[in-house]
Amino acid sequence: MAAGIFNKLKKLVQVVGKGISWMNDKVVKSIMPITNALLSSLGPAGSMVAKGIRVELSAIDALFGPNEKQSK
User: Fold this and answer.
1) I need a surface site. Which of 8, 36, 50, 61 has the fewest CB within 10 A?
2) 69 in a domain, yes or no?
3) Which range marks the domain in which residue 25 is found?
4) Which residues 6+ apart lie within 8 Å of 58 measured at CB?
5) In this predicted model, what pLDDT tens digit does every residue of 29-49 receive, in sequence order?
């Protein structure tokens, strides 16, 4: 019974990971040039926020991998 619960939990994490990876690739990375320009106008605080966003994007790529083509 415990194996079934862990299997379902693993599948849930995989689905959520694919969604996060898709959002990272399609949405966040596409608006980053605009975001960087806006944040750089805020001075040192803005550059710290931009660096944090870049670290987060790298962490998402490391955890969930790049968004691979899904066969349907």
Assistant:
1) 8
2) no
3) 17-64
4) none
5) 888 889 888 998 999 999 999
